[in-house]
Amino acid sequence: MTQAKVDVLLGLQWGDEGKGKVVDVLTPGYDAVARFQGGPNAGHTLEFDGKKFVLKSIPSGVFQGDKVNVIGNGMVLDAALFKAEATALEEAGVNLKDRLYISKKAHLILPTHRLLDSALEGSKGAGKVGTTGRGIGPTYTDKVARTGLRVGDILSPDFEQKYRNAKASHLRTLDSLGFEYDLSATEPAWYDGIEYMRQFKFIDSEHCINNMLREGRTILCEGAQGTMLDIDFGSYPFVTSSNTVCAGACTGLGIAPNRIGRVYGIMKAYCTRVGSGPFPTELFDADGEALSVRGHEFGAVTGRRRRCGWVDLVALKYAVTLNGVTDIILMKSDVLDTFSTIKACVAYILPDGTQTDEFPFDCEGVTPVYEEFPGWRTELCGMKNENEFPEEFNSYISFLEQYLETPVTIISVGPDRNQTIRRGE
Questions:
Q1: Which residues have a Cβ under 8 Å from the Cβ of 171 and sit 6 or more positions away?
Q2: Position with higher pLDDT, 342 vs 276
Q3: What is the rounded distance in angstroms from the CA atom of residue 290 to the CA atom of residue 293?
Q4: Which of 132, 253, 300, 336 is the least buried, fewest Cβ under 10 Å from its Cβ?
């Protein structure tokens, strides 16, 4: 018996590649969209019909009619933030309760997790990771320590006692760190969020997903953050707390590896990073400022200015390999429209003077080796077909495909869903 396969869409850089828009564009071809990791530290921005939406925990397929949207077991949810996000969508006319399912095995971010996040980050001094402060890391820590609360626990008659036990443990840690806190400012909203969540359908997402596949239904798995923030393969310790790579879709939704079909890898035509950590191609000059301004590079969740630099093909090839990418989606090419020269990092010079095109154990202190390309100096944002692309832009795309050994099949030339060009059509 032949079952359907899931397709996976994920970021290939340090996050903020534009995943929300692409999921929104691809969703019409699928029956369901499922998030498999992360939490409200993600910010997927979608723009259409003159409106802008930022989704944090809710899958980006909720705007597309009767699609099923699943919050998978690999995610972590803050009840208060979930309620705020969901009610805003409902006020905008999105009928969430009929199309959003939540895995019972997803873990709950408690108010004390957010306090722990702030306390632990503050204790690191100059070694700060640069977290969003949303309690993501402490929640995943409790998950691995087997002391966390899950969405399914909300249905338990002793949920309140389980919460009190977890809270007491967290408060002991906060007291040991000498951290001052006031739970009265956040706990009531969290309880309100828990009651609101009860209105949604809690599911065993592994059964739901696999039953849909047996029925021949199509599913798009939506990742958050980016490959270079993966807890195992990213620029550790300056990473997120979950597996952002394609394998995370298997563990974060309960999908067997042989059920993975196409893997869409999203990249910007340049590179950005939020927070601390190594960033080999980061620019501190006028070019970096121009990328920031033209690309509106500010975090959708935190509002923090993103660090900007030239595209890093060493890191990208590493990401393509780890994820088994079948299709590359190139975002924000239009941001480079005004540049006379465009650079791409093709190798690193390591601190010991040797040169490599393989991503190293530690990329701190490496020197990028660049290849330069003439800019296209043409506005891409109004183009509707790849036949309109200037020769210089086509040459840049061809080089990316050759270096990454993967075809670029979709190109975005602006923030709106209509500013998306599928090559070969």
A1: 112
A2: 342
A3: 5
A4: 300
